[in-house]
């Protein structure tokens, strides 16, 4: 089962892997033709009704595979208004090769004839709202006709994610959908077949450029990427500052750093963009927890817990107490990680262990994390939280789904890149579902390093400037 947004991401990832959409359209069209052949005998009358988007494009491809039928293709609208290059190229091919095609300029002129089968390729995943003209009239004609109706990808007018049909949606007898079934097809009174269109498994497994495009959290609004609160520092000062700064570079609106008073000066001195909130204690301890919980909960802060905190008993007690009282979103990193397996929390956690921290938490003790992705998935299921395990290839799992981010450079083994990752993850949690945020963050971090291309001598702070560019969708 795949949603429209995920499908678009996988599509773009496939293109980045060298399988462009036009090739997928060729496979889709071929699959449509196979479905036609399974439903009617050679010589039967077929009416193809194509819209001006890629859903129509699929059927325009299919027309070339249906020579043994009496096929008539109607394009709803003028060819110049076809909305994508690949669909238009497939129209032009039919036109040049003298297939039986017709541009329908006016909804009153729609005549399906008396076909045995209608291919409904008006609208697929690009639909929004009720059917407009001329699609509405064409849908009515299809629904009133005696012909078998085969819909391409999704019955036109039906929302592929929800199954909701706008007024006048096509009532399909059969649906041929691509790659994976869609949630909205489940509730239909139609026979649904899922066809493989040659999308490489890697397009789903590996985080790619398509993943950047999709913002998946319904709470997300433009310019509302949330407040990040880094609870860290004390023994160390650089780590919390790097995490907070990277969260800003990755789109957070405000970054707070909660630290012991005695390290206020250095941390406040690193960057004027950070809001430094000191507490009166030499290090984090249980006395600070009520205040921190109160602030984080009141502002719906996305918390980063761990960078530079150290391993003092009272600090780890405070971490455990914070997590058991917290029900928001948090990234847990570094020294705070050891507490997670013991703690009972309602929070949504993304845990970001390196190889050693993963083993100490009870996960697999291995060098090549990606080769042991199944064990990391089992560990995440057991832990009940999202695990973003950091290595050359990062493994991200929520216990059910597991993906790999394989971007980055050897120079990233330098100290501080993990702090950056924690901050980027927190910012991503403001606009995406937690698992998607955990997948995109290491991809952004790795792309930033690739863009700098600095080899050895890279410092984590160098990467800060490269993060915004690495998040751009159109790179
Ligand atoms: N990997 C894949 O999934 C592939 C899918 N393919 C097919 O492409 C379509 C999606 O194509 P897209 O161009 O994004 O959108 P549509 O063709 O569904 O529609 C766009 C078209 O429709 C107009 N429109 C929108 N809402 C309405 C409305 N209510 N009434 C009338 N018209 C409307 C809009 O303005 C556009 O012009 C997918 O379903 C698959 O079939 C690829 O072929 C291969 C890869
Ligand atoms: K359709």
From TrEMBL:
Catalysed reaction equations from the record: (6S)-NADHX + ADP = AMP + phosphate + NADH + H(+); (6R)-NADHX = (6S)-NADHX; (6R)-NADPHX = (6S)-NADPHX; (6S)-NADPHX + ADP = AMP + phosphate + NADPH + H(+)
Cofactor note: Binds 1 potassium ion per subunit.
Record EC number: 4.2.1.136, 5.1.99.6
Ranges in coiled-coil conformation: none
Binding site for (6S)-NADPHX: 54-58, 124-130, 153, 239, 308, 419
SUPFAM superfamilies associated with the record: Ribokinase-like, YjeF N-terminal domain-like
Domain YjeF N-terminal residues, every copy: 7-205
UniProt GO MF annotations: ADP-dependent NAD(P)H-hydrate dehydratase activity; ATP binding; kinase activity; metal ion binding; NAD(P)HX epimerase activity
Residues annotated for K(+) binding in this entry: 55, 120, 156
Task performed by this protein: Bifunctional enzyme that catalyzes the epimerization of the S- and R-forms of NAD(P)HX and the dehydration of the S-form of NAD(P)HX at the expense of ADP, which is converted to AMP. This allows the repair of both epimers of NAD(P)HX, a damaged form of NAD(P)H that is a result of enzymatic or heat-dependent hydration.
Protein name: Bifunctional NAD(P)H-hydrate repair enzyme
Species for this entry: Halococcus hamelinensis 100A6
Lineage: Archaea, Methanobacteriati, Methanobacteriota, Stenosarchaea group, Halobacteria
């Amino acid at each position: 089962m795949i949603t429209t947004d995920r499908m678009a991401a996988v599509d773009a990832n496939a293109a980045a892997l060298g399988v462009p959409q036009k090739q997928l359209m060729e496979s889709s069209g071929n699959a449509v033709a196979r479905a036609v052949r399974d439903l009617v005998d050679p010589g039967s009358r077929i009416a193809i009704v194509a819209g001006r988007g890629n859903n129509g494009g699929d059927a325009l491809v299919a027309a070339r595979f249906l020579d043994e039928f009496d096929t008539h293709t109607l394009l709803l609208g003028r060819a110049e208004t076809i909305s994508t290059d690949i669909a238009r190229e497939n129209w032009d091919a039919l036109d040049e090769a003298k297939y039986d095609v017709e541009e329908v300029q006016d909804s009153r002129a729609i005549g399906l004839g008396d076909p045995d089968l209608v291919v409904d390729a008006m609208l697929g995943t690009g639909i929004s709202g009720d059917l407009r003209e001329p699609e509405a009239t064409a849908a009515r004609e299809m629904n009133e006709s005696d012909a078998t109706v085969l819909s391409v990808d999704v019955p036109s007018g039906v929302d592929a994610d929800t199954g909701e049909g706008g007024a006048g949606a096509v009532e399909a007898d059969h649906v041929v959908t691509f790659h994976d079934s869609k949630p909205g097809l489940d509730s239909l009174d139609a026979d649904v077949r899922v066809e493989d269109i040659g999308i490489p498994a890697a397009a789903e497994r590996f985080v790619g450029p398509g993943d950047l495009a999709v913002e998946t959290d319904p709470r997300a609004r433009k310019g509302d990427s949330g407040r990040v609160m880094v609870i860290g520092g004390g023994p160390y000062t650089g780590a919390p500052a790097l995490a907070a700064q990277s969260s800003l570079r990755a789109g957070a609106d405000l970054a707070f750093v909660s630290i012991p008073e005695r390290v206020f000066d250095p941390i406040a001195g690193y960057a004027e963009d950070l809001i430094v909130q000191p507490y009166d204690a030499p290090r984090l301890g249980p006395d600070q927890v009520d205040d921190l919980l109160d602030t984080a909960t009141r502002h719906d802060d996305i918390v980063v817990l761990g960078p530079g905190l150290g391993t003092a008993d009272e600090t780890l007690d405070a971490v455990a107490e914070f997590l058991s009282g917290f029900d928001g979103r948090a990234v847990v990193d570094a020294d705070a990680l050891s507490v997670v397996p013991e703690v009972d929390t309602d929070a949504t956690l993304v845990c970001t262990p390196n190889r050693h921290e993963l083993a100490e938490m009870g996960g697999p003790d291995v060098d090549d994390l990606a080769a042991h992705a199944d064990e990391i998935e089992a560990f995440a299921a057991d832990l009940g939280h999202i695990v973003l395990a950091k290595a050359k290839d990062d493994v991200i799992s929520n216990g059910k789904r597991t993906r790999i981010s394989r971007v980055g450079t050897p120079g990233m083994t330098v100290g501080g890149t993990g702090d950056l990752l924690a901050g980027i993850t927190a910012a991503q949690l403001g606009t995406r579902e937690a698992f998607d945020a955990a997948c995109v963050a290491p991809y952004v971090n790795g792309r930033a390093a690739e863009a700098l291309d600095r080899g050895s001598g890279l410092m984590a702070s160098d990467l800060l400037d490269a993060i915004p560019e690495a998040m751009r969708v159109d790179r």
